[in-house]
Design a protein that fits this description.
Layout lengths: L3 E7 L3 E8 L2 E4 L3 E2 L3 H15 L3 E6 L6 H13 L6 E6 L3 H8 L8 H15 L3
Parallel strand pairs: 1-5, 5-6
Antiparallel strand pairs: 1-2, 2-3, 2-4
Helix pairs in contact: 3-4
Length: 127
């Protein structure tokens, strides 16, 4: 059985989302965040819809706000209805890498989902 992965890049306004099976990773439509409960419901629905077994959560390591961001992200993850495995992956420079791939400057969340794809590729060891 192929595991199905979903990676998320949790932000204050948008949550970038990427889906992966095997070595294939595809950015998905981001989740717009009105409030954390709505975002958690939408995210829970998305993982169920895709039949995800492993949720890869981007976590910023290093930097002055690491503890605060970790607390916020772990709290958000605790709100999800998800029975699979949750792993945390360093997301350092993922947005920068994504901006080199996706150069459109619109603030529509596609960059966030591209960053989630970078995070998932790192986790899977796909470069």
């Amino acid at each position: 059985m192929n595991e199905k992965f979903m990676a998320i890049d949790v932000g204050l306004k948008r949550i970038g989302v990427a889906f992966g099976v095997g070595q294939v990773v595809l950015p998905q439509e981001p989740i717009l965040r009105k409030n954390r409960n709505q975002a958690a419901r939408d995210m829970s629905q998305r993982v169920a819809e895709y039949g995800v077994n492993v949720l890869v959560v981007g976590l910023p390591l290093g930097g002055s706000s690491e503890d605060e961001m970790r607390r916020r992200i772990e709290h958000f993850v605790s709100l999800l209805e998800f029975g699979g495995r949750i792993v945390y992956q360093d997301e350092s420079l993922s947005s920068f890498e994504a901006s080199e791939i996706y150069t459109d400057t619109k603030r529509d969340g596609k960059l966030d989902s591209m960053a989630a794809a970078v995070i998932l590729k790192r986790y899977l060891g796909v470069v």
